[in-house]
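Duplicate of #3305? Posting structure anyway:
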């Protein structure tokens, strides 16, 4: 989907169309969740501090995010996907992989499937979507961004290698700024540069990641589209209006713990690991975790463990923090719950994807 949150706002309020729209809470600690393409012309981007966005585009209309509404629209888009394939791997509210090797409508090509889906989204939801069509997920992801907004780009199998050769290495999944800078120092700027390097030499420089780089430089990606992917962690976090000491974090930790307990309980998932996340005034991230022998038994236990993890933070009392988060991970697998059910009168708990927890930091690739 194109500038998803902002596009939904412009669709639902005609007075916003053609105007720069920024989806964000106003405030010096808020970040941009989404920016319309009109706002992007001024340099406004997702994850940017809202105060920076306001400085870059004083005429922008700031709107608080409405995640309930965005999720409803996302579900309507998903329903359109399901007319064509059951092999759907959602990445976020606004993005998904579809395997259309076999499609329900019997369309002869993947390109025609993509065109049909984009037309249906526009006709029924009055929103635009961009699509990438390619032989695998790696190439399809790159293609989906190639002609945004409202674009379609196709990479045929015989075109893949030539397409990749001139691509900046930063477009490869897993190559962040640090790795990109490291590659640049070694004279590696394009995917084509990786292509020319023997695997053994890549392994000396990049270790276990070398095999993946070697394959992607050749357009090889065997990762399948995985439907119903189970989320590995449920978490929530708060960014404070003002920096606070650790001792003042307790009410925030309690509220966040109660929130994620409700989410995991409603979705019948049992976790063994509790995670505490803190970010200092200086933007240093800290994590502390505790793994139990069995699932966390209650919300009170979760709160107690989260607070005990705060005590493990060995920093001066004068240290201030800008963010705190609480998470649950290490969920029991379906086979574990099935085995437990065989020895218990209680029904088995079947894990499934929680979905998105609404918060200021929730979002997707186009909309943080």
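Output from current build:
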């Amino acid at each position: 989907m194109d500038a998803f949150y902002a596009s939904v706002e412009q669709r639902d309020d005609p007075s916003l169309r053609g105007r720069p729209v920024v989806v964000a809470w106003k405030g010096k600690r808020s970040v941009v969740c989404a920016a319309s393409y009109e706002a992007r012309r001024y340099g406004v981007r997702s994850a940017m501090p809202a105060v920076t966005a306001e400085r870059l585009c004083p005429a922008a209309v700031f709107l608080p995010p409405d995640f309930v509404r965005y999720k409803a629209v996302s579900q309507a888009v998903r329903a359109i996907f399901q007319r064509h394939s059951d092999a759907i791997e959602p990445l976020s509210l606004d993005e998904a992989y579809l395997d259309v090797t076999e499609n329900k409508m019997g369309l002869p090509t993947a390109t025609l499937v993509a065109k049909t889906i984009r037309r249906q989204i526009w006709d029924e939801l009055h929103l635009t979507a961009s699509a990438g069509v390619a032989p695998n997920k790696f190439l399809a992801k790159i293609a989906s961004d190639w002609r945004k907004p409202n674009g379609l780009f196709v990479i045929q199998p015989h075109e893949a290698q030539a397409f990749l050769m001139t691509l900046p290495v930063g477009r490869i999944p897993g190559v962040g700024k640090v790795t990109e800078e490291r590659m640049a120092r070694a004279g590696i700027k394009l995917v084509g540069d990786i292509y020319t390097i023997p695997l053994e030499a890549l392994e000396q420089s990049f270790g276990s990641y070398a095999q993946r780089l070697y394959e992607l430089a050749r357009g090889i990606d065997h990762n399948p589209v995985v439907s119903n992917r189970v989320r590995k962690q449920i978490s929530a976090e708060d960014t404070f209006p003002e920096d606070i000491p650790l001792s003042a974090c307790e009410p925030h930790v309690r509220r966040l713990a109660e929130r994620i307990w409700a989410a995991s309980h409603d979705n019948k998932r049992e976790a063994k690991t509790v995670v505490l996340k803190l970010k200092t005034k200086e933007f240093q991230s800290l994590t502390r975790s505790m793994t139990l022998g069995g699932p966390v038994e209650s919300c009170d236990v979760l709160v107690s463990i989260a607070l005990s993890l705060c005590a493990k933070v060995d920093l001066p009392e004068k240290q201030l923090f800008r963010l705190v988060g609480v998470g649950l991970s290490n969920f029991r697998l379906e086979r574990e719950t099935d085995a437990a059910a065989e020895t218990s009168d209680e029904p088995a708990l079947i894990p499934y994807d929680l979905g998105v927890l609404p918060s200021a930091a929730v979002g997707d690739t186009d909309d943080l």
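Confirmed duplicate; merging threads. The domain at 160-216 is CATH 1.10.150.20 (DNA polymerase; domain 1). The longest strand covers residues 233-245.
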